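TICKET: design request
STATUS: open
ATTACHED STRUCTURE:
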C-alpha cells in the first residue's frame, strides 16, 4: 500500500492506510496553501470536541523546525488550552489524522503503530507525526493531496466509545492581498485629557477596524504614546473564526516624510481584538518642537493587509 501512495513507511513512527470514509470529528480545508507555506509559521485550527474533550490540529507546512524536520509536513493533534488544565489531568486516546486524496476521493490516514493509545497530559499535550508526508509528494498534484493549491486535513479521536458530532473549518490564505490605509487627523494634541481616543471606523477586506490612541500611555507604556489597531465589529466573525493581518501603524512626519512606523502580524478574533504597542513612542518627543506635531496637529495612519481568514463551517 505504501508504494501506491508514494510514501516510505517508517514502522516505528507511523502507520499509514487508505480510507473511503471521511474523518468523524473534524476537517479543515486550506485554500492557497502555498501562501501559508510561504509565511513559514505553524497553523492551529479552531477547537473541536471529541470524547468529552477539546482538541485542535497543529500544522507545520514546512516541517517542525523545533525538531529539525525538513522536506516534510508535520501534523499533530493537541489538547486545546492545555495550560489551563490541572497538573494531574490526563486522557488516553487513539487518534487518526487524515489527508484527502482529491483525485481518488479517499483519504490517506496516519496513526500510531498498531493503533496504540497515547496519553495526553499537561506536560505532553500534543501527539502526532513529525514526518506526516514528504513535501515533494504532497505538492505533486498527481497524488491528489494538493490540487489547485487546496488541501483538506482531518482528525478522529477516540477516548472511549463516545463520539461527538463533527465540526469543520476553512482556512483561506488570500493571494495578492491588497493593503488599505486610513489616516486619522488629531487636533489639539497637547490638550488631550482622556485616557484613550478611538478613530472613526474604517473597512478593510470586509472587516471594520479602528485605531486606538492612549496619549499618555497604557499598561507598561507609561511616559509613551500607546497605539493599537482594533477589530471594531465582531458581527462578521463567529466565536471560533479569526483573521490573519499584517498591521503597520505610523505617525506621519509632516515635513520630511521621516515617519515613525512599526509593523507586526496578528490573528484577530473575538478573544483577541487588538494588536499594537504600549510603548509606541516616547511622549517627551511630542512635548517639544518636532515634525510629527505641527501647530498641535498630528496624523496617525493604519495600514491593514488581511492575509488569511479562518472560518468555522456549519
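STATUS: resolved
RESOLUTION: sequence designed for all positions
ATTACHED SEQUENCE:
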Amino acid at each position: 500500500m505504501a508504494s501506491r501512495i508514494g510514501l516510505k513507511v517508517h514502522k516505528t513512527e507511523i502507520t499509514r492506510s487508505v480510507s473511503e470514509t471521511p474523518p468523524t470529528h473534524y476537517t479543515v480545508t486550506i485554500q492557497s496553501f502555498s501562501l501559508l507555506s510561504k509565511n513559514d509559521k505553524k497553523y492551529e485550527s479552531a477547537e473541536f470536541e471529541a470524547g468529552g474533550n477539546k482538541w485542535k490540529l497543529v500544522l507545520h507546512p514546512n516541517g517542525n523546525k523545533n525538531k529539525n524536520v525538513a522536506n516534510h509536513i508535520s501534523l499533530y493533534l493537541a489538547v486545546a488550552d492545555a495550560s489551563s488544565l490541572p497538573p494531574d489531568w490526563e486522557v488516553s486516546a487513539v487518534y487518526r489524522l487524515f489527508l484527502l486524496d482529491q483525485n481518488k476521493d479517499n483519504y490517506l490516514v496516519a496513526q500510531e503503530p498498531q493503533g496504540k493509545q497515547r496519553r495526553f497530559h499537561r506536560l505532553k499535550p500534543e501527539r502526532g507525526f513529525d514526518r506526516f508526508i514528504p513535501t515533494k509528494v504532497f505538492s505533486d498534484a498527481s497524488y491528489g493531496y494538493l490540487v489547485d493549491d487546496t488541501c483538506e486535513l482531518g482528525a478522529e479521536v477516540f477516548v472511549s466509545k463516545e463520539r461527538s458530532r463533527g465540526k469543520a473549518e476553512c482556512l483561506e490564505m488570500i493571494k495578492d492581498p491588497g493593503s488599505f490605509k486610513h489616516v486619522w487627523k488629531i487636533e489639539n494634541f497637547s490638550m488631550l485629557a482622556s485616557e484613550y481616543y478611538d478613530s472613526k471606523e474604517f473597512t478593510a477586506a470586509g472587516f471594520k477596524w479602528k485605531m486606538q490612541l492612549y496619549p499618555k500611555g497604557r499598561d507598561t507604556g507609561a511616559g509613551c504614546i500607546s497605539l493599537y489597531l482594533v477589530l471594531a465589529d465582531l458581527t462578521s466573525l463567529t466565536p471560533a473564526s479569526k483573521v490573519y493581518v499584517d498591521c503597520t501603524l505610523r505617525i506621519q512626519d509632516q515635513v520630511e516624510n521621516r515617519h515613525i512606523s512599526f509593523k507586526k502580524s496578528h490573528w484577530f478574533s473575538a478573544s483577541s481584538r487588538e494588536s499594537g504597542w504600549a510603548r509606541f513612542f516616547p511622549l517627551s518627543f511630542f512635548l517639544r518642537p518636532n515634525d510629527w506635531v505641527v501647530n498641535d496637529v498630528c496624523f496617525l495612519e493604519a495600514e491593514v493587509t488581511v492575509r488569511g481568514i479562518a472560518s468555522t463551517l456549519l
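CLOSING REMARK: The chain has a mean pLDDT of 89. The first strand starts at residue 15 and ends at 19.
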